[in-house]
Prior knowledge:
This protein is an all-alpha fold. It is built from 1 helix and no strands.
Amino acid sequence: MAQDHETRxxxxxxxxxxxxxxxxxxxxxxxxxxxxxxxxTRALSNMTDQVEELMENVLPGHQIExxxxx
Length: 70
C-alpha cells in the first residue's frame, strides 16, 4: 500500500513538473505576442499618419472625414 502511494506521489510530481514547464513555455509565447502586437500597432499608426499626410498633399484643402458610421 505504501508503495502504491509513493508511486502515485511520484507520478503527480512528474505531472506537476510537466505542467509547470508548459505554463512557462506558454507564458513566453504570450509575452512575445504582446511585444509583436505593440510593434504592429505602432507600425499601423505610423502608416496611417503617412497615408493621411499623402492624402493632404495629393488633395490640398480636402478634409479627410470619417464616414458617419465611425
